[in-house]
Amino acid sequence: MAQEVLAKALASAGRDERFRTETFEALRRAELNADNPTQFRNEIRWPIISAMLAEARYHRVVLSDGLQYEIGFDSRIERALLLSREAAPNHVWEPQTTKLLVMLASVPGDILVGGAYIGDQIVPMAKVVESRSTTAKVHGFEPMGYSFGRFVRNIQLNNFRNVVTNQAGLWDRPGELHIAGEPALSETSDATGPTPAGAEVVPGITADDYVRDHGIQRVGLIMLDTEGGEEKALRGASGILSRPFPEAPNIVFEIHRNFVDWTNGLQNTPLIEYLTGLGYTTYAVRDFHDNIDTTGLPIELIPIDSVYLGGPPHGFNMFATKDPTALQRFGLELVPEVSPKLFAEKEKDPKIHSPTAWLKYPPHGAAR
To answer: Is the pLDDT of residue 92 over 90?
Structure first.
């Protein structure tokens, strides 16, 4: 009974944005000073945050550069931001990938993003594009209705006029698709039969058709996070990807063991063989699935034929390019024979599970 009263009181108090903001900040500071920060985060900070959002549903977070997001607690992406160790974080999720995308957004041309989710990565890219061009646009594709609505809201919050929002999925053919699952983890499939319970029917479009139909002259970057649909989307972009450097776009995409059999090495999977055949060189990006401040640390890439793939089924991002100067141009570092999966704490072998630079320079905000 007492727990129900407390939960109701926290939910009611959470409707006041100012009080909610001040409480969240006090909890953040308390975690940093706790004897056991991880325990405090899991047993005190997060339960209070989630209880206070029970009625308010969303909380506005302002990043260090002024970008804004309305954040709920529907996914680990949003939870990570709400639980950031920083008062004003400089990103939402996957810090090294965010830094890479921001760098690549400076390349001339439009940007295509499949799996836009709530716009977590589109918003910082749109800011870069806005600064470099009055005509270039970021085209976001998010098939799930709920996530699409939140994506649109976050674009509106930041007053961007250079983002085109599409409730559709990038695929290898035009037609209807099924989308089902939790936000940020929803999977897309061909709509070849009856609609499964809980699934939505959405339009599918190829990147090649979209670029042609919208008169886009050049695509500088394609980013994909579509829970296993990445290969379909890239095969639907064969015309764009076949262009020579520098007209061919850079690509950042997720690959996951649940969807790709990499038993014989990443370089021998159909997706990587497809990109290699088109002239791309591909690397794995070392990153956290969290909100971790990596300011000052270089972006580490692993050559495709030396990625350490041990551990439980997991996923990570890849970077593919035809630019022979990309590593030097963007200050990217090669680190062979290590894992792309990074952890801030609790890992046994820092040579495998931590950025190599951390061996010399522990980062601000990381668990010691």
So the answer is: yes
